[in-house]
Amino acid sequence: MTGFGKSQVQLTSRKVSIELKSLNSKQADANFRLPNELREAEPLLRQQLLAGLQRGKIDCSIQTEGTDGSAAPSINEELALQYLHQFRRLNEQSGTQGDALGALLRLPEVLRESKQDLSEQDQQLLSEALEAAMDQLRQFRHSEGQRLQADLHQRLQTIAAKLDQVSPLEGERKEQVKKRLENNLAQLQASADRDRLEQEMVYYLEKLDITEEKVRLRSHLQYFEDLLQEGGAVGKKLGFVSQEIGREINTLGSKANNAPIQKLVVEMKDELEKIKEQVLNIL
Fold first, then answer.
1. 19, 74 contact by CB (below 8 A)
2. What is the pLDDT of residues 56-103, one digit of tens each?
3. Residue 43 belongs to a domain with what CATH number?
4. Are residues 24 and 85 in the same domain?
């Protein structure tokens, strides 16, 4: 969701420059910095910005530069003369001299900004300039999205490859469980019915079976990949799917009961955490 865009437009009496910066955020949040003469346009600009960019923490900075004298501030002459008379009395009483005019122009309300309402044409031009800046930002986001898609695709393949390495270890895991149960019985010096022992082993191994978790995990990985190919604003969906992927990996780890499989689970979790971090950058 990060990006940058800028544009300029010439209005009736001023040149306007617009800059947009976007950072990652779960919601759409716009912060405007613009001069007082454009405050009346802020509600419509905000609505346009949030509708066009959807998500992200967006900073919109708008600056103006007057191109004729109509936008120049005016001097409140009546108030300025009152201040000036007071300055003269103070000078006579104190016997000091100073830059009365310079101090005068810095006093409150002496300089008044020229208030000019935006015409419909100026409002339309301002809206078009904002749209142009948004187009640049969207292009920036699109380029970033292509890089993210390639990175996420690679990480999904890594998880799938590690899942493939689990299957050959399952046969070894079953033999280990069987031997461990038999050794425990031998240490107890207890005799057991062979058929009953086999039934208990089958029951125990069924509880440790991870076939369903592997099937669901592959399904979630494929759905995640499909969403990446679908494009559009799929960030929230990808976040939900990544949670489901994590749930299946955790269950697989808790039922693994095998050091090599648990090692693969840890490596899959590491890749998933990186995926979750990247998903935060997607609309």
1. no
2. 899 999 998 876 555 566 778 788 888 888 878 877 787 777 677 777
3. 3.30.230.10
4. no
- Angle, helix 259-279 to helix 167-188, in steps of 10 degrees: 140
Tokens of 277: 């971090």
Three-class SS state of 62 = strand
Distances (CA, A) of 113 to 28, 41, 69, 202: 33, 17, 12, 86
> What is the model's pTM?
0.66
Section 237-258 average pLDDT: 92
What is the C-alpha separation between 206 and 137, in angstroms, rounded? 54
C-alpha 29/C-alpha 1 separation (Å) is 12
How far is the CA of 60 from the CAs of 42, 137, 269, in angstroms? Answer: 10, 12, 38
Q: In which domain, by residue range, is 103 found?
A: 74-112
144-153: b (≥16 Cβ within 10 Å) or e: ebeebbeebe
Co-location of 34 and 146 in the same domain: no
Q: Is the Cβ–Cβ distance between 3 and 133 less than 8 Å?
A: no
Q: Are residues 53 and 136 in the same domain?
A: yes
